[in-house]
Amino acid sequence: MLIFEALDAGHGDALIVRYPGSQDFQRVLLIDGSAASTGGHYKESYKPLATSILPRLLQIKEERDTRKKTEDLHSGKEKLIIDLAICTHVHDDHIVGVLEMFQMLAGKKVALPGIEKIQIRNLWHNSFSSILEGVD
What we know:
Structural class: alpha/beta
Strand order of the largest sheet: 1-2-3-5-7
Number of strands: 7
Strand content: 15-25%
Helix content: 25-40%
Number of helices: 3
Order of helices and strands: EEEHEEHEEH
Shape: globular
């Protein structure tokens, strides 16, 4: 089953897509990561990575860990593997949360509790230069 989840990202965007892999485990994609913090209609600064995105990823890991090994080969593994993180474009309300997550995973920024339970295998960044590859 293909599952799309739109996460509360303030005025930005953050999506999780899950689908069955070729073996008995679920693939996870993260699309965009919202801004570092947002104001908008919230009374206080809202930090989507800390309050929405990471908690949902950790919840997916917990859900996966309760399944039997026959249902999901990744059940009980140390980390939730995000097969692909996608940055659709470089506006702050799409990319900053992903950048923060990578900085935390690399130890270059103070990590949020639970971030050590996440692993990102691949990053796809939609950049203007990749569209014009080979063009002077």
